[in-house]
Amino acid sequence: MMIFGTAEFWVLASFLICLVIAIKLIFPKISVGIAAYQSEVATVLMEAEKKLTFAKQKLKSTHEKTDALPQVLSALLKDSKSRSRRYQKEWEKQRDYLQSYYYNMHQHHRSAIEIQMKRQLVFRVGNACAVALTHKSVESLTAKSNDKVVLKSLDELPSIW
What is the tens place of the pLDDT at every residue in 129-152? Predict the structure, then answer.
């Protein structure tokens, strides 16, 4: 029998030689690549698990914050209302102060103007009296009594008050 001369033998022999070469040379490199890929996948998976844990914590924290949001908003609303009332009271005080200050200044200004007008009137009346007295006294130097002339001039003047 001649087994070495058949084509099946040589196909089997070449297959075994290729298998031995593959086992010795190619499979170790493939297994190293597979191991590196497995470690890379494991690293990515661990990072993903860490991120998932962090995301779950953030979600829980967010839910806690959103659950507490109505209380926070009501506290802010209450605080803003109290501040608004306080600012309104302060504004009303300032408004009242300014109104009274303006009224007092207006009254003071009016009284100062009235006093100035009275002074000017008295000054003008005094000048008129002096002119009238001078005029009448010059006219009546020849008259017997200057008293009558002065009294008559004063009666003709308008009243100041």
Answer: 676 666 666 555 555 455 666 666
| CA-wise closest residue to 136 among 126, 125, 148 | 148
User: Three-state secondary structure along 133-156?
Assistant: HHHHHHHCCCCCCHHHHHHHHHHH
Q: At a CB cut-off of 8 Å and minimum separation 6, what does 16 contact? A: none
Report the predicted TM-score, pTM, of the whole model to 2 decimal places. 0.37
d(CA 43, CA 33) in angstroms, rounded, equals 15
* Cβ-contact 61, 54 below 8 angstroms: no
- Rounded to whole angstroms, how far apart are CA atoms 155 and 134? 15
Task: Give the span between the Cα atoms of 151 and 156, in whole angstroms.
Answer: 9
